[in-house]
TrEMBL record:
Lyase keyword on record: yes
Chain ranges of the Aromatic amino acid beta-eliminating lyase/threonine aldolase domain: 10-296
Superkingdom of this protein's organism: Bacteria
Lineage: Bacteria, Bacillati, Actinomycetota, Actinomycetes, Mycobacteriales
Organism expressing this protein natively: Mycolicibacterium chlorophenolicum
Protein name: Low specificity L-threonine aldolase
């Protein structure tokens, strides 16, 4: 008897296919020769669109193929080896980037306690208060994730207060925005309100329907001197830059990037509601496109026969299901049916 194929529909938004608009954008960019290394018209247009979206006319814009590279470029250009990069205890830069930010910046990565990736202002105060003389590494930048690795959204007033307070403490602020579109769509606020007055932002594309590519919005270039050299050193200054930029231009046009994110969020809410109706407890509030649910071994066995799901913490019976632009209501209903 043939086994039933296991679907990756909820494994990650990285597992989703590329949106047709991304493929169309690549085809349009593939029309004849163009200047290389980002000196083409499409890259310039995409940069202008990103600046306009985030109300940051003076920002520099760079691109990377992956979110990890975008984070490393942003952080490594902000620090010296005697500096500290502050992050949450569940941060992607801490747990899922293979030590890349530390290796390539030379700076120390210091975790701060959080609630699902949301860091309290008091934690910043406590860490910065310990800043000592030459014997101690010096806090330089704090990185926060929007939406967080546990699917939480920094609400606009909270992220504004956090970023402003970090600045008052003399810290720079980086926003890891691999799912920033989901946070913007969830709150129905402007992009800049969803990131506060952050100094540098990585803007996710791959998780939101692009074939590849994340952007780096450098809102205060004076604090990130040499960032273009870091981008080049780690191999993310693409010779055919227009193929990354063209996708951003397509997604920023008519707010497609927010429409895809809003759909993913809606599917996550549908999934979460169905799980709770069936008596399953959510481990974190569902505020964007990720669902964390507690499953006993029997329930997990039933679900995993049909779907690939991820267990973030092997010590906890919590499983992550992620919705994407391509998730359908039939996909959601199928997963719920598998748990009956």
């Amino acid at each position: 008897m043939a086994s039933v194929p296991v679907s990756a529909a909820f494994a990650s938004d990285n597992a989703a296919p590329a949106h047709p608009a991304a493929l169309d954008a690549l085809a349009r960019a593939n029309d004849g020769p163009a200047p290389s290394y980002g000196d083409d018209a499409v890259t310039a247009q995409a940069a202008d669109a990103l600046r306009e979206a985030f109300d940051s006319p003076g920002a520099d814009v760079l691109y990377a193929f992956t979110g990890t590279a975008a984070n490393i470029i942003a952080l490594a250009s902000a620090v010296q080896p005697w500096h500290e990069i502050l992050c949450s205890d569940v941060a992607h830069v801490l747990l899922d980037e293979a030590g890349g930010p530390v290796r390539l910046s030379g700076a120390q990565l210091t975790r701060l306690p959080s609630v699902d990736g949301l860091i309290a202002i008091d934690e910043l105060d406590r860490r910065v208060a310990r800043r000592g003389p030459v014997h101690h590494s010096q806090p330089r930048i704090v990185t926060i994730t929007q939406s967080t690795e546990n699917g939480r959204v920094w609400q606009a007033p909270d992220i504004k207060g956090f970023v402003d307070h970090a600045h008052d403490l003399g810290l720079l602020v980086h926003v890891d925005g691999s799912r920033v579109a989901n946070a913007i769509a969830a709150q129905q606020v402007s992009p800049i309100d969803a990131v506060g007055d952050a100094d540098i932002i990585t803007v996710g594309g791959t998780k939101n329907g692009m074939l590849f590519g994340d952007a780096i919005l450098v809102r205060r270039p004076e604090h990130f001197d040499g960032i273009a050299f870091v981008q080049k050193q780690i191999g993310h200054l693409a010779s055919k830059h227009r193929y990354v930029a063209a996708q951003f231009l397509a997604f920023l046009t008519d707010d497609l990037w927010l429409q895809t994110a809003a759909h993913a969020n809606a599917m996550a809410r549908r999934l979460a509601a169905g799980l709770e109706e069936r008596g399953f407890a959510l481990a974190s509030p569902v505020e964007a496109n990720e669902v964390f649910v507690r499953l006993d071994p029997d329930a997990h066995d039933r679900l995993s026969r049909s779907y690939t799901v991820h267990q973030p913490d092997l010590d906890e019976p919590v499983w992550r299901l992620v919705c994407s632009w391509a998730t359908t209501s039939e996909d959601v209903d199928g997963a719920l049916a598998a748990l009956r």
